[in-house]
Design a protein that fits this description.
Tetracycline Repressor, domain 2; about 200 residues; Arc Repressor Mutant, subunit A; DNA-binding; about 75% helix; mainly alpha; homodimer
Amino acid sequence: MNDRVSTKTRILDVAERLFGEKGFDGTSLRDITAEAGVNLAAVNYHFQTKDSLIDAVIERRIAPVNRRRLEMLEAAGPNPAIEQVVEAFLVPVLECSLSPMVALMGRVLATPDQFVYRVFKKHLAAIAQRFADAVGAALPELAPAERLWRLHFMGGTMAHVLSWSHVLPEMTGGLCDPSDRKALTARLVSFLSAGFRAPFTEAH
Amino acid sequence: MNDRVSTKTRILDVAERLFGEKGFDGTSLRDITAEAGVNLAAVNYHFQTKDSLIDAVIERRIAPVNRRRLEMLEAAGPNPAIEQVVEAFLVPVLECSLSPMVALMGRVLATPDQFVYRVFKKHLAAIAQRFADAVGAALPELAPAERLWRLHFMGGTMAHVLSWSHVLPEMTGGLCDPSDRKALTARLVSFLSAGFRAPFTEAH
DNA sequence: GTATGATCTAATCATACGTATGAATGATCG
DNA sequence: CGATCATTCATACGTATGATTAGATCATAC
């Protein structure tokens, strides 16, 4: 170890931030090692390849978030309100304030290619069924396909909020302030819960 | 011109598809020219740089979509229902079925960096105010900031649907089929309109 | 104190990138 | 015909990329 934190951790931290800011393809190993103040070869020593570095960066953040999600779902009991389900999905991410992790999560959710998708799918599969069940418990009249669609919509809303939160104030002339996580959570829960409760009208 | 379509158009078509599939950084000019069957230098001849090629690719699709959006907004009159506003936002994109443009749009909306953001902002600024006004007309009790937030949420939902539509069937075991645009539109309008109508509860 | 294994480093590899060049090609028109 | 112009072409430049190597350095155990 060099300073206070190990080389491995410093790489993970800087990689997380840069991946979130500039994307996976847009961030080179040299960008990462330069900012982390470590040798270029350290990445390959600790993580073998860039791909498995990406994997490690994502894994480190998603795993605890999903654990917390399942905890909140558990705490909501067998007959949750849809608000509780939505909160269980959102809060574990949103409560991280504006940490670099937030941009990373947005990036992951917005990168439907290659193996980023594989990594994401691995972690999603672990909780998707639980959330589908929870929505079913909260809104039993909702058709199974519609449940999945609306979970998909919720994921999109969250992904977008995460991805754009750092430019949103400028985009809206300061009207929208994503740094107030409490208010943001309340807005999202209100909006999404109403969406989940919407009458299901098949196309005509 | 070589075949039926000009070199310039072939570059734009292939670039649009590859940018949508693999991202802007993940697509090289060599990828594009190889698939398009044109010479590498043709890109620089017709578009000067890769950046302005990206610009041209986006411009070609977003401009007509936004024109159509404003038409639909216009057609809804001065007192639209929120459903009409949502439709005016969604339909011009969704009616393009599963063309490569759809993945491109998703990619643009999910790339909040560098100059992709600038390009996007240019086209967004041209219609954002109109949609904010339309939401205000449909739901006058909604606070201005909340209007913008919910428009932002709607953009995220659409972006996610566009980005992931090509893997969604596999992700959901075939339960969700994004190719039925009519049904998809109905689902989105129902979900999002309900979200817009949700009571606005400030954080407590 | 030195042997040992883990960690770090500088230097280098082959390849891929965006861009630029100058010559060939082909159509248009006097 | 020959001149002009836009387009296409093969090729090269300089740089950046992910990966690898062999050796230096460090901590710990004997």
